[in-house]
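User: Run a structure prediction on this.
Assistant: Running it now.
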Amino acid sequence: MPQALPLHEPLAADLSDDKAVELAEMFRLLGDPSRLRIVIETLEGPKAVGDIATTLDLSPSLVSHHLRLLRAARLVSPERRGKQIFYRLHDAHIAHVIADMVAHVNEDHPHDASEDDA
């Protein structure tokens, strides 16, 4: 069984019930594949709704709907450039979590023999 990595801060003790609910809501929002793909698309930098829609083969109205939810959860932030609004990840914390999880699922993991025993 893998050992737990040491954390830089005592995070669990500092997480109030309200913040635990907020965090769970963020993960719930990211549980939707389209929203997750939108967030991943913004890892590279600010993107316009139309560009996100085209890249992900989604309708602009659906992308806008998802972005409203992601914005309310402080996962993405708007950035106005002239008449267009671009969306970017809210901060480096979000970028690190998403990038680390993408790297994690892309790792090659040898089959764990102990799984056969369960």
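The chain has a mean pLDDT of 88.
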